[in-house]
Amino acid sequence: MRHGKKINHLGRQAGHRKAMLANMACSLIEHKRINTTVAKAKALKQFVEPLVTKSKEDTTHNRRIVFSYLRNKYAVTELFREVAAKVGDRPGGYTRIIKLGNRLGDNADMAMIELVDFNELYNATKKEAKKTTRRSRTAKKATAPAAEAPATEAPAVDTEENKEATE
Question: Which run of H or of E encompasses 37?
Fold first, then answer.
């Protein structure tokens, strides 16, 4: 029976598991995305999300609590400065796990875990799509007559008809 066994031990003793999760969390905060196994990514998500929530309120107490988990002052500084500024209005769900397939060596399920607000591909297309549609409507009206006028005056590419006409 597995009653009350909520934590995935990841085949490690408690000290090793805490150190591994702290190192992975520091790497995630520094690089904004890392590749790992699915089980470690899920464990890391449970480890990091409360820390990001703590970082939204920048107090000495919260910094000390986060430092006790991460044990890296550079990661704590970056978490409270950059990450907290981007996720300030988000109520939760700061990380995203994307499954990548199986690792060649041992066929382990691999995943990429990333901070949601730092992914330029997902965030940029949504925001720019709205801006470009608004710009294109006004830009087409303003540039359409100007763009057509030079196109009619410019000579066409050298074709057989143009060569015969010049001769």
Answer: strand 33-37
Q: Kindly report, residue by residue over 116-145, the tens digit of the pLDDT.
A: 988 878 776 555 545 555 666 665 565 655
Q: Which two tokens stand for residue 139?
A: 């830009």
In 10 A of CB 33, how many CB atoms? 15
Domains for the chain: give ranges and CATH numbers: 14-118 (3.90.1030.10), 123-166 (no CATH)
Q: Among 108, 92, 90, which residue's Cα sits nearest to residue 100?
A: 108
Predicted structure pTM score:
0.72
Strand order in the sheet with 95-102: 33-37, 109-115, 95-102
The residue with greater pLDDT, 151 or 58, is 58
Are 129 and 52 within 8 A, CB to CB? no
Nearest to 41 by CA among 118, 116, 119, 113: 113
Binned at pLDDT 50, 70 and 90, residue 148 comes out as low
Nearest to 66 by CA among 39, 84, 93, 88: 84
Say if residues 95 and 119 touch (Cβ distance below 8 Å): no
Rg (C-alpha) for the chain, rounded Å, is 27
